[in-house]
Amino acid sequence: MAVSEPHFLPQMPTEESATPATPRPAAPRDHRPRVALVGAGYVAQFHRDVLAEMPEVELAAICDADPERARSAARQWGVAAAVTSIDELADLGIDVAHVLVPPDLHVPVTRQLLELGLGVLLEKPAALSSVEAFELQRLADREELPLGVNHNNLYHPAFVRLLERVRAGRVGRVEHVRVCLSVPLAQLAAGDFSHWMFRSPENIIFEQAPHPLSQLHALIGRVQEATTTILGSRELLPGQTFHDRWLVAARGERGTAEIYLAFGQGFNRWTLEVLGSDGSAEADLGHNLFSWEEKTPWLDFWNGFLAGWRRSRSLVRDAAGGVVRYARFTLGMGRRQDSYFAGMRSSVRAFYDALKAGAPLPVDAGQAAEVLEWCEAVVADAIRGARGKVETLRPSRLPAPGPARPGEVVVLGATGFIGRRLVARLVERGLPVTAVVRRPHSLPPVLAEASRDGRLRLLPGRLEDPAALAAACQGAKTVLHLATGGGDSWEKIERSMVQGSVAAAEAALAAGAERFVYVSSIAALYLGGDDSRPGPALIEDSTQTDPQPEGREIYSRGKMAAEAALLALHRERGLPLVIVRPGVVLGEGTPLQHSGLGLWVRDNHCVGWGLGDHPLPVVDVDDVAEALALLASHAGHDLDGKALNLCTRTPLSAREIVAEMRQATGRDLHFHPRPLWLSQWMEIGKWVVKKIGRRPGATFPSYRDLKTRACVPPFSSRTAREVLGWRPVEDREAFLDRTVRVHAK
Questions:
Q1: For residue range 704-738, what is the model confidence (pLDDT) as tens digits?
Q2: Which residues of 726-735 are buried (b: 16+ CB within 10 A; e: fewer)?
């Protein structure tokens, strides 16, 4: 189905301080616009993919404050220029910049671009207040420059169909709109509370709610009044409150609305229903389905049948169409048509079509400001209070670290799942600790409290910053390296995991550290067993990394390469290296959907790496932290150049763990055993389809990697037990209490 452009009502007048100049059409352009992406983060990939389908525009530059990220994106996408300063864009002859930076930077970045004479396509939210958005529109009008806002969900295929039906009068007069947006949040599940949307209680509304609120604005106009009830809240960190469920009753210019917003939920549900005087229409935006009901002249029994028949026929047709579109794209017979990308494509294309024709932009900053009025109305009653001022969480200021103390223990990756527990143990032992943190926006309580009373030195830094690493390692006795990085390509893995680890080791060597501990993973080993012998062989600490790394996925290959590079430094330059390989780490703070248990095809359906009936090499996260703390205090060089596996002998299989999770949480969790040979054939089938469709990056699935994921062989972990005196929790019930039943909270 072709996605048509939504119809927008004329802009309504408002107060003098907030009213933009009268919107004027952009000057028509008869040349191919040169475009820059400002911000090379997650959403930039979608903008690039859309622009790649538009030969009438030229993606000419990537601009990002991180020079390596800008260069990496430019290389990956074949873009000629990679810059770190907005001022450089004007010299490159850029016509339009897509602003894709975090929301709190939208206004200053957009203002700077407009003042340089560049047009702008701005990601939502246009600003963090309607007044600022109106001001940006006035500036754009004065400079006679286009300023569009990417409200891409106005072009969601299901919503476009609903809007067309409403505009055609098929539901009569719109009386009420019901919105349900209940979605999971990956950052919340991962404990990444430093993200912008968690820094203030209102930020989640400005980050997530513009999607449904822009649709609501298109249906019933500007907000007149709203009453909000907070249905659920949680404290992410001390002083950092997050409201996860909101219920709003509102009145717009042309109808009323009921809005339910829920974030961090286990079940994804996004629907919008219009109730009119003569019919109704519902868009299921999560599944791209559309249905409707209208009055008929027939008796009630037949009218009821027709309503059900039409609704079911529409749903079946849309569902089948989704399968066909996916199959066509996968087989290379059609372009990408999932609803998110289709909406993004149509929104960006509508902006450039208007630009070329000199027509009014589909959504300008003035119209986006009216959507922001909806956001402000939602938060005002619940958070702002009568005076309209919100207390936001400012980025944490790190206390002055002071000089390094004798015997300093440096922890890289101190805010992570294992790292924050490790810091707690080191501080409890009275050791002088330096923690290197990447994002100081919201520190775990253990770090914040210890830094305030002077027991902990906090330093900002990244593995990519040699100067920060040198400063952190100055005077260090022990360096514990947990910040191993990651990425979705080998280039990123090599840069962050391998080169970053070498940089940390170089800094430790230069500082004269007596021990460098690299936290690797059992994923660096081959765990598929020996097919020539019956029964799995015992995995000893001396077991080498997989001798066939080319048959493994990139995370495992990265761990292997990092270990090899660090061992080379140990042999050639005397790096006092100890490698630690934790097993399947469980505990409070890790997601239920642990990849060590199987492939989670949904957040409550786990397909096993095999039948899932053998004991896994599990370990409690607190026991991993304890082993690392013991290493920090261990005297001598008897462990230099050696590896320690950290796995327990707890008799728990993946099937049993998922069953215990189900009982503890009340979630409808399921474990699906599947033989490895069947999984391999299914993966081969996917590969065949990708090859037929000429999908880039399609590699033949590795049975070696699949066998390793099953984690069949037992581990001895003898060195940690005998040399360090490590005593992990291995009683079955006690282990379940500490690692699985904690999820009942």
A1: 999 999 999 999 899 999 999 999 999 999 999 99
A2: bebbeeeeeb
pLDDT-derived band at 390 (thresholds 50, 70, 90) equals very low
With H, G, I as helix, E, B as strand and everything else as coil, classify residue 595.
Answer: coil
Query: Residue 731's closest CA among 662, 647, 656, 651?
Result: 651
Matching fold, domains 19-148+338-360 and 157-287+377-384 = no
Residue type, 715: F
| Residue corresponding to tokens 């873009």 | 79
Task: Output 219 or 488, whichever has higher pLDDT.
Answer: 219
Encode 133-144 in three state secondary structure: HHHHHHHHHHHC
The mean per-residue pLDDT over the stretch 222-229 comes to 94
Each residue of 71-80: pLDDT tens digit?
999 999 999 9
**What pLDDT does 30 receive?**
60
Length of the chain: 745
513: part of which helix (H) or strand (E)?
none
CATH no., domain 19-148+338-360: 3.40.50.720
Backbone angles phi, psi at 512, to 5 degrees: 75, 30
Report pLDDT digits (tens) over 612-637. 999 999 999 999 999 999 999 998 89
Average pLDDT over residues 246-261: 96
Using CA of residue 626, residue 411, residue 420, residue 525, what is the dihedral sign? negative
Instruction: Report pLDDT for 471.
Output: 87
Question: How many CA atoms lie less than 13 Å away from 281 in the CB half-sphere?
Answer: 24
Tokens of residue 608, six digits: 């096993």
Tokens 């609305």 belong to which residue? Answer: 257
* Sheet with 605-608, edge to edge strand ranges: 598-602, 605-608, 670-672
Q: Using CA atoms in the order 136, 139, 141, 142, what is the torsion angle rounded to 10 degrees?
A: 170
- DSSP track, 533-556: SSSPPPB-TTPPPPS-GGGS-HHH
The mean pLDDT value for 433-462 works out to 78
Answer yes or no: CATH 3.40.50.1110 is held by domain 157-287+377-384.
Answer: no
Kindly list the domain boundaries of the chain, sorted by start residue: 19-148+338-360, 157-287+377-384
Question: What is the distance between the alpha carbons of residues 306 and 316, in angstroms, rounded to a whole number?
Answer: 15
Q: How far is the C-alpha of 718 from the C-alpha of 720, rounded, in Å?
A: 6
Residue carrying structure tokens 């460098």: 516
pLDDT at residue 532 greater than cutoff 70: no
489 touches 550 (CB < 8 A): no
Cβ pair 369, 130 in contact under 8 A: yes
By the 8 A CB rule, do 654 and 598 touch?
A: yes
Residue 451 DSSP SS3 = helix
| pLDDT at residue 298 in the model | 82
